[in-house]
Specification:
about 300 residues; alpha/beta; Rossmann fold; eight-stranded mixed β-sheet; 8 strands; globular
Length: about 300
């Protein structure tokens, strides 16, 4: 079901929901991309009412700014308020994992569970990006020359899509299926918002260098699941400090999968997420039942 969410500054945000059960809101990566998490929704929609949305300026949402982390947190809160209700489970992928974490830090009472998929952590000192760039070039193999040629010039829309497909192919562990999976991500092609990408990435870099996110993460007491693919070209040690800072977290690495683990290891991805949601929902319900009655 396609839906229209209005932000508090009247920006139209595309959203879609499916399935039944407790609300689970999905945050796509990028920044500057559109929702590509329909396969995740289909894996989980017998256990949750999944809600997907295109971030402001991206995909089917209204193409307008401002592009800032605070603005995207407010937009996510509008999605929660209008579609999910007072409390939701939250799953974010890549940049969307950082957005979901930031939202949870600011509104912990509105999040029941946080699922952090293929994020890049909170520690700016260890410098994961040079490792990513080196691994990207290695994974591209014989496509490297074409990718570099496209990256170095102004591209037509067709070339923009080609460059993205080649780059995204490196996010999959299996070379035999990587291009096909990347083509699927780029279909339909809704155009990358590079202004959004540059603004958000610059702010996140500055935010991590100046903020005390580790301290803020230690204050969270809600359950967090961190999921990594063992073959992700973004080094997974970048997430170590986040895992250590979270007091109620578990971390699962899915074998044989890259940056989108639900694509290459859907069985274990579904099992891990549904087990986490079910287990912690029961614990939360048990805690509620143990609370003393309100003496009114």
């Amino acid at each position: 079901m396609n839906l229209d969410v209005r932000s508090d500054d009247n920006c139209h945000l595309w959203a879609e929901q499916s399935g039944s059960g407790p609300p689970l809101v999905l945050c796509h990566g990028g920044p500057g991309l559109w929702d590509y998490l329909d396969p995740v929704a289909r894996l989980l929609d017998d256990r949750a009412r999944t809600i997907r949305w295109d971030q402001r300026g991206c995909g089917r949402s209204q193409r307008r700014g401002p592009y800032s982390v605070a603005r995207f947190v407010a937009d996510l809160d509008a999605v929660r308020d209008q579609l999910a209700g007072p409390r939701m489970a939250l799953l974010g992928h890549s940049w969307g994992a950082h957005l979901a974490l930031r939202y949870t830090i600011e509104h912990p009472e509105r999040v029941s569970h946080l699922i952090y998929v293929s994020g890049t952590g909170i520690d700016p000192e260890r410098g994961w990006h040079p490792h990513y760039k080196r691994n990207l070039r290695l994974r591209l193999g014989h496509h490297l020359d074409r990718w570099e040629a496209l990256s170095a010039r102004t591209r037509t829309p067709e070339e923009d899509r080609e460059q993205a497909v080649l780059q995204w192919s490196a996010d999959f562990a299996d070379h035999g299926t990587a291009l096909r999976h990347a083509e699927g991500m780029a279909t339909p092609w809704l155009g990358i918002n590079y202004d959004c990408n540059q603004a958000i990435n610059a702010e996140v870099k500055q935010e991590l260098s100046n903020s005390e996110m580790a301290v803020q993460c230690r204050a969270l007491d809600l359950p967090v699941l961190i999921i990594d693919g063992t073959e992700d070209i973004r080094p997974r040690w970048a997430v170590d400090s986040l895992h250590q800072a979270l007091t109620n977290s578990q971390r699962v690495s899915l074998a044989g999968s890259g940056h989108l683990p639900w694509v290459e290891n859907p069985h274990d991805f579904r099992r891990t997420v549904t087990t986490f949601l079910t287990q912690h929902s029961r614990q939360t319900l048990s805690q509620v039942h143990r609370e003393p009655p309100d003496p009114r």
